[in-house]
Automatic annotation (TrEMBL):
InterPro entries referenced in this protein's UniProt entry, alphabetically: A/G_AdeGlyc_MutY, DNA_glycosylase, HhH-GPD_domain, HhH_base_excis_C, HhH_motif, MIG/MutY, MutY_C, NUDIX_hydrolase-like_dom_sf
EC number: 3.2.2.31
Function: Adenine glycosylase active on G-A mispairs. MutY also corrects error-prone DNA synthesis past GO lesions which are due to the oxidatively damaged form of guanine: 7,8-dihydro-8-oxoguanine (8-oxo-dGTP).
Keywords: 4Fe-4S, DNA damage, DNA repair, Glycosidase, Hydrolase, Iron, Iron-sulfur, Metal-binding
Cofactor(s), names only, from the UniProt record: [4Fe-4S] cluster
Identification of the protein by name: Adenine DNA glycosylase
Keyword GTP-binding: no
Catalyzed reactions per annotation: Hydrolyzes free adenine bases from 7,8-dihydro-8-oxoguanine:adenine mismatched double-stranded DNA, leaving an apurinic site
């Protein structure tokens, strides 16, 4: 069996019609690849369309302000991807005169671009023979060859990268890369793939050994931390609220949120009211505090779970430094905050 040609034949029949497959423009390929990191195609497609519409060229993206980019990105998570997009666009415009890097090695110099993204752009836009290795590729290759080397360690990456590089052809590497990724996404799926219709079911090691469900192997990550977030949703007499911009290198850098009280255990009313009384914009005699959600909203990130309460703090006074409530939706916020804003309906 010719693995390469079988993959390509399958792809030409089964591929999805996606907008970034109708172009070799490296800017659009780059946008699609960054958006689709940690994101399913169905979720990423409208974001891709919005970015192309709002920033049709790398020059448009470079001159945009970060806040507008983060707002457009809202809901995708991993916001460093958006900040890296902006930084790389500015680098391409200012340092490369708007000319996109056209080799794998040069693409790796862009902020936020690693082996996979550089390989995808180099092969699709510039016909360079460099193999992609993403979750879909790991899954297909580990099952087809019966490889149990963990994919999230350096040895695993090197082994699968070398194998993929051996398989990719010099003629039309773009189609091969897209075929193997699409095959992993649509046929060799993570759970319950229909192996009876797979063109490789006569030669797949995992199918023969009954190890489909256990491959690829991934070493378990360290224990997820549990945190307790309490947001103060301030409502003033002059119809304003408070938003603060997150600083530092932690989660949601430069996004906006309501004033946050983080506690080391689930907070009760007395704990939060003591904090409220210490705030310089609160008159102890003229406020009301109530809990909006009786059960914690658990927001799961890759390395931590945020157990979240929203507390409504009503002031019988004005808030000169506040944000008019009708403008709240214009700020880029984490999806956790965005969902609350939509539900609360200021």
């Amino acid at each position: 069996m010719n693995l390469q040609q079988t993959l390509i034949n399958w792809y030409l029949v089964n591929k999805r019609d996606l907008p970034w497959r109708n172009t070799t423009n490296p800017y659009y390929i780059w946008l699609s690849e960054i958006i689709l990191q940690q994101t399913q195609v169905a979720q990423g497609l409208p974001y891709y369309t919005s970015f192309v519409t709002n920033f049709p060229s790398v020059f448009d993206l470079a001159k945009a302000d970060e806040s507008s980019i983060l707002k457009l990105w809202q809901g995708l998570g991993y916001y460093s991807r958006a900040r890296n997009l902006h930084a790389s666009a500015q680098y391409i415009v200012s340092e490369l005169n708007g000319e996109f890097p056209n080799t794998y090695s040069e693409l790796l110099k862009l902020k936020g671009v690693g082996d996979y993204t550089a390989s995808a752009i180099a092969s699709i836009s510039f016909n360079e023979k460099t193999a992609v290795v993403d979750g879909n590729v790991y899954r297909f290759l580990s099952r087809f060859y019966g490889i149990d080397t963990p994919i999230n360690i350096s040895k695993g990456f090197k082994e699968f990268k070398a194998l993929a590089q051996d398989l990719i052809q010099s003629v039309d590497p773009a189609t091969f890369n897209q075929a193997i990724m699409e095959f992993g996404a649509r046929q060799c799926k993570p759970k319950s793939p229909d192996c009876t219709v797979c063109p490789f079911n006569q030669s797949c090691v995992a199918y023969a050994k009954g190890t489909i469900a256990s491959l690829p192997v991934k070493i378990k990550a360290s224990k997820v931390k549990k945190k307790y977030f309490n947001y103060l949703v301030v409502l003033s007499n002059d119809n304003k609220t408070l938003l603060e911009q997150r600083q530092g290198k932690g989660i949601w850098q430069n996004l906006y949120q309501f004033p946050l009280v983080e506690t080391d255990k689930p907070a009760n009313y007395d704990m939060i009211v003591d904090t409220v009384k210490s705030l310089d914009y609160v008159n102890e005699e003229t406020f009301e505090l109530s809990l909006y959600n009786t059960s914690d909203i658990v927001h799961k990130l890759s390395h931590q779970h945020l157990n979240t309460k929203f507390w409504i703090l009503t002031l019988n006074s004005n808030l000169p430094q506040g944000v008019p409530v009708q403008k709240v939706e214009s700020f880029p916020v984490p999806i956790l905050i965005g969902n609350f804003i939509e539900d609360f309906n200021f």
